[in-house]
Amino acid sequence: MTESSKPSPNAGSTLEYVVDTLRQGILSGRLVPGQRLVEADLTRQLGVSRGPVRESFRRLSAEGLVESIPNQTTMVRRYSKVEMLELFEIRAELEALAARRAADCMADAAAKARFLEAIGPIWESHPLAAAPYFDENRRFHQAIADLSGSAQLAELIKKLQLPLIMFQLGGAISPQSIQDSIDEHRRIAQAILDGNGRKAAAEVKAHLKRACDMVESMPASIFRA
User: Fold this and answer.
1) Is residue 6 part of a domain?
2) pTM summary value
3) Among the three residues 76, 95, 127, which one is the final residue of a domain in this structure?
4) What would the mean pLDDT of 126-147 be, rounded to a whole number?
5) How do 73-76 and 36-37 pair as beta strands?
Protein backbone atom coordinates (compact mmCIF):
# COMPACT_ATOMS: atom_id res chain seq x y z
CA MET A 1 0.00 0.00 0.00
CA THR A 2 1.47 3.36 -1.00
CA GLU A 3 0.73 6.95 -0.16
CA SER A 4 -0.65 7.48 -3.66
CA SER A 5 -3.15 4.63 -3.21
CA LYS A 6 -4.29 5.78 0.23
CA PRO A 7 -8.08 6.13 0.36
CA SER A 8 -9.80 8.77 2.45
CA PRO A 9 -12.08 7.96 5.36
CA ASN A 10 -15.70 8.68 4.65
CA ALA A 11 -18.86 7.37 6.25
CA GLY A 12 -18.49 4.98 9.15
CA SER A 13 -16.10 4.76 12.01
CA THR A 14 -12.35 5.01 11.80
CA LEU A 15 -12.10 1.37 12.84
CA GLU A 16 -14.40 0.19 10.05
CA TYR A 17 -12.43 2.28 7.58
CA VAL A 18 -9.15 0.64 8.62
CA VAL A 19 -10.65 -2.88 8.64
CA ASP A 20 -12.24 -2.40 5.21
CA THR A 21 -9.09 -0.91 3.71
CA LEU A 22 -6.87 -3.73 4.92
CA ARG A 23 -9.42 -6.41 4.04
CA GLN A 24 -9.70 -5.13 0.48
CA GLY A 25 -5.94 -4.90 0.21
CA ILE A 26 -5.65 -8.56 1.19
CA LEU A 27 -8.53 -9.87 -0.93
CA SER A 28 -7.33 -7.98 -3.99
CA GLY A 29 -3.81 -9.36 -3.65
CA ARG A 30 -2.26 -5.93 -3.06
CA LEU A 31 -1.18 -7.23 0.36
CA VAL A 32 0.26 -10.70 -0.18
CA PRO A 33 0.53 -13.79 2.06
CA GLY A 34 3.44 -13.45 4.45
CA GLN A 35 3.66 -9.67 4.09
CA ARG A 36 4.29 -7.88 7.39
CA LEU A 37 1.75 -5.28 8.48
CA VAL A 38 3.66 -2.61 10.38
CA GLU A 39 1.60 -0.50 12.78
CA ALA A 40 3.68 2.64 12.35
CA ASP A 41 3.49 2.46 8.56
CA LEU A 42 -0.26 1.91 8.55
CA THR A 43 -1.00 4.74 10.98
CA ARG A 44 0.93 7.09 8.71
CA GLN A 45 -0.54 5.79 5.45
CA LEU A 46 -4.13 5.73 6.69
CA GLY A 47 -3.95 8.83 8.86
CA VAL A 48 -5.23 7.10 12.00
CA SER A 49 -3.98 6.34 15.50
CA ARG A 50 -2.53 3.00 16.62
CA GLY A 51 -5.73 1.93 18.43
CA PRO A 52 -7.87 1.30 15.32
CA VAL A 53 -4.95 -0.42 13.58
CA ARG A 54 -4.45 -2.83 16.49
CA GLU A 55 -8.18 -3.57 16.72
CA SER A 56 -8.33 -4.12 12.95
CA PHE A 57 -5.61 -6.76 13.33
CA ARG A 58 -7.78 -8.57 15.90
CA ARG A 59 -10.81 -8.47 13.63
CA LEU A 60 -8.95 -9.63 10.55
CA SER A 61 -7.31 -12.39 12.55
CA ALA A 62 -10.78 -13.66 13.51
CA GLU A 63 -11.64 -13.68 9.78
CA GLY A 64 -8.54 -15.75 9.03
CA LEU A 65 -6.93 -13.03 6.93
CA VAL A 66 -4.00 -12.10 9.17
CA GLU A 67 -1.98 -13.82 11.86
CA SER A 68 -0.13 -12.27 14.77
CA ILE A 69 3.00 -13.58 16.44
CA PRO A 70 2.92 -12.37 20.08
CA ASN A 71 5.45 -9.63 20.80
CA GLN A 72 6.76 -9.83 17.24
CA THR A 73 4.66 -8.91 14.22
CA THR A 74 1.38 -9.20 12.35
CA MET A 75 1.32 -10.43 8.77
CA VAL A 76 -1.07 -11.44 6.03
CA ARG A 77 -1.90 -15.06 6.72
CA ARG A 78 0.22 -17.69 5.01
CA TYR A 79 -1.04 -21.27 5.10
CA SER A 80 0.98 -24.37 5.84
CA LYS A 81 0.81 -27.25 3.38
CA VAL A 82 -1.21 -29.34 5.86
CA GLU A 83 -3.75 -26.53 6.38
CA MET A 84 -4.14 -26.05 2.65
CA LEU A 85 -4.64 -29.75 1.97
CA GLU A 86 -7.26 -29.96 4.72
CA LEU A 87 -9.16 -27.03 3.24
CA PHE A 88 -9.21 -28.62 -0.22
CA GLU A 89 -10.40 -31.91 1.29
CA ILE A 90 -13.28 -30.18 3.09
CA ARG A 91 -14.16 -28.22 -0.03
CA ALA A 92 -14.29 -31.42 -2.09
CA GLU A 93 -17.03 -32.89 0.09
CA LEU A 94 -19.09 -29.70 0.35
CA GLU A 95 -18.80 -28.79 -3.32
CA ALA A 96 -19.62 -32.33 -4.46
CA LEU A 97 -22.86 -32.01 -2.49
CA ALA A 98 -23.52 -28.60 -4.05
CA ALA A 99 -22.90 -30.00 -7.55
CA ARG A 100 -25.37 -32.85 -6.99
CA ARG A 101 -28.01 -30.42 -5.77
CA ALA A 102 -27.29 -28.01 -8.64
CA ALA A 103 -27.77 -30.81 -11.19
CA ASP A 104 -31.18 -31.52 -9.68
CA CYS A 105 -32.21 -27.93 -10.51
CA MET A 106 -31.64 -28.21 -14.25
CA ALA A 107 -35.29 -29.00 -14.95
CA ASP A 108 -35.99 -25.39 -13.92
CA ALA A 109 -35.39 -23.33 -17.08
CA ALA A 110 -34.85 -20.10 -15.15
CA ALA A 111 -32.27 -21.70 -12.84
CA LYS A 112 -30.48 -23.22 -15.83
CA ALA A 113 -30.37 -19.85 -17.58
CA ARG A 114 -28.92 -18.17 -14.47
CA PHE A 115 -26.27 -20.86 -14.19
CA LEU A 116 -25.30 -20.56 -17.85
CA GLU A 117 -24.96 -16.81 -17.50
CA ALA A 118 -22.86 -17.10 -14.33
CA ILE A 119 -20.40 -19.62 -15.80
CA GLY A 120 -20.22 -18.09 -19.29
CA PRO A 121 -16.49 -17.22 -19.13
CA ILE A 122 -15.42 -20.88 -18.78
CA TRP A 123 -16.36 -21.53 -22.42
CA GLU A 124 -14.29 -18.62 -23.73
CA SER A 125 -10.68 -18.70 -24.85
CA HIS A 126 -8.41 -16.25 -23.05
CA PRO A 127 -4.79 -15.86 -21.94
CA LEU A 128 -3.77 -18.38 -19.30
CA ALA A 129 -2.81 -15.77 -16.71
CA ALA A 130 -3.16 -16.32 -12.98
CA ALA A 131 -5.07 -13.16 -11.98
CA PRO A 132 -8.07 -13.51 -14.35
CA TYR A 133 -8.14 -17.26 -13.73
CA PHE A 134 -8.38 -16.76 -9.96
CA ASP A 135 -11.43 -14.54 -10.40
CA GLU A 136 -13.05 -16.91 -12.89
CA ASN A 137 -12.33 -19.87 -10.62
CA ARG A 138 -13.98 -18.17 -7.64
CA ARG A 139 -17.05 -17.19 -9.66
CA PHE A 140 -17.44 -20.68 -11.12
CA HIS A 141 -17.34 -22.51 -7.80
CA GLN A 142 -19.63 -19.96 -6.17
CA ALA A 143 -22.15 -20.25 -9.03
CA ILE A 144 -22.51 -23.96 -8.28
CA ALA A 145 -22.89 -23.28 -4.56
CA ASP A 146 -25.52 -20.61 -5.19
CA LEU A 147 -27.50 -23.01 -7.38
CA SER A 148 -27.51 -25.69 -4.69
CA GLY A 149 -30.63 -24.23 -3.10
CA SER A 150 -29.02 -24.25 0.35
CA ALA A 151 -28.07 -20.86 1.75
CA GLN A 152 -26.04 -22.48 4.52
CA LEU A 153 -24.09 -24.68 2.11
CA ALA A 154 -23.43 -21.72 -0.19
CA GLU A 155 -22.17 -19.63 2.72
CA LEU A 156 -19.85 -22.39 3.95
CA ILE A 157 -18.37 -22.80 0.48
CA LYS A 158 -17.95 -19.05 0.14
CA LYS A 159 -15.98 -18.94 3.39
CA LEU A 160 -13.68 -21.69 2.12
CA GLN A 161 -13.12 -19.96 -1.23
CA LEU A 162 -10.09 -18.25 0.27
CA PRO A 163 -8.40 -15.84 -2.16
CA LEU A 164 -5.32 -16.01 0.05
CA ILE A 165 -4.73 -19.60 -1.00
CA MET A 166 -4.73 -18.67 -4.66
CA PHE A 167 -2.46 -15.68 -4.10
CA GLN A 168 -0.08 -17.86 -2.09
CA LEU A 169 0.08 -20.49 -4.84
CA GLY A 170 -0.07 -18.04 -7.74
CA GLY A 171 3.60 -17.91 -8.65
CA ALA A 172 3.83 -21.70 -8.77
CA ILE A 173 0.76 -22.34 -10.94
CA SER A 174 1.72 -22.99 -14.56
CA PRO A 175 -0.32 -22.09 -17.67
CA GLN A 176 -0.85 -25.82 -18.22
CA SER A 177 -2.30 -26.19 -14.72
CA ILE A 178 -4.67 -23.31 -15.44
CA GLN A 179 -5.77 -24.93 -18.70
CA ASP A 180 -6.29 -28.28 -16.96
CA SER A 181 -8.45 -26.56 -14.35
CA ILE A 182 -10.54 -24.79 -16.99
CA ASP A 183 -11.09 -28.11 -18.80
CA GLU A 184 -12.21 -29.66 -15.51
CA HIS A 185 -14.60 -26.76 -14.91
CA ARG A 186 -16.15 -27.43 -18.30
CA ARG A 187 -16.66 -31.12 -17.49
CA ILE A 188 -18.25 -30.24 -14.14
CA ALA A 189 -20.51 -27.68 -15.78
CA GLN A 190 -21.59 -30.08 -18.52
CA ALA A 191 -22.49 -32.78 -16.01
CA ILE A 192 -24.60 -30.27 -14.07
CA LEU A 193 -26.29 -29.01 -17.24
CA ASP A 194 -27.05 -32.62 -18.19
CA GLY A 195 -28.71 -33.10 -14.81
CA ASN A 196 -26.23 -35.84 -13.91
CA GLY A 197 -25.63 -35.20 -10.22
CA ARG A 198 -23.51 -38.29 -9.63
CA LYS A 199 -21.11 -37.41 -12.44
CA ALA A 200 -21.00 -33.75 -11.42
CA ALA A 201 -20.04 -34.71 -7.86
CA ALA A 202 -17.37 -37.12 -9.11
CA GLU A 203 -15.91 -34.46 -11.42
CA VAL A 204 -15.77 -31.94 -8.56
CA LYS A 205 -13.93 -34.41 -6.35
CA ALA A 206 -11.47 -35.25 -9.13
CA HIS A 207 -10.90 -31.54 -9.76
CA LEU A 208 -10.09 -30.78 -6.13
CA LYS A 209 -8.05 -33.98 -5.79
CA ARG A 210 -5.83 -32.70 -8.60
CA ALA A 211 -5.51 -29.41 -6.70
CA CYS A 212 -4.34 -31.39 -3.66
CA ASP A 213 -1.82 -33.29 -5.76
CA MET A 214 -0.52 -29.99 -7.13
CA VAL A 215 -0.10 -28.59 -3.61
CA GLU A 216 1.69 -31.77 -2.52
CA SER A 217 4.22 -31.35 -5.32
CA MET A 218 5.04 -27.71 -4.57
CA PRO A 219 8.25 -26.68 -2.78
CA ALA A 220 8.16 -26.16 0.97
CA SER A 221 9.24 -22.53 0.54
CA ILE A 222 5.73 -21.62 -0.63
CA PHE A 223 4.16 -22.62 2.67
CA ARG A 224 4.30 -21.53 6.28
CA ALA A 225 6.45 -23.91 8.29
Assistant:
1) no
2) 0.81
3) 76
4) 87
5) antiparallel
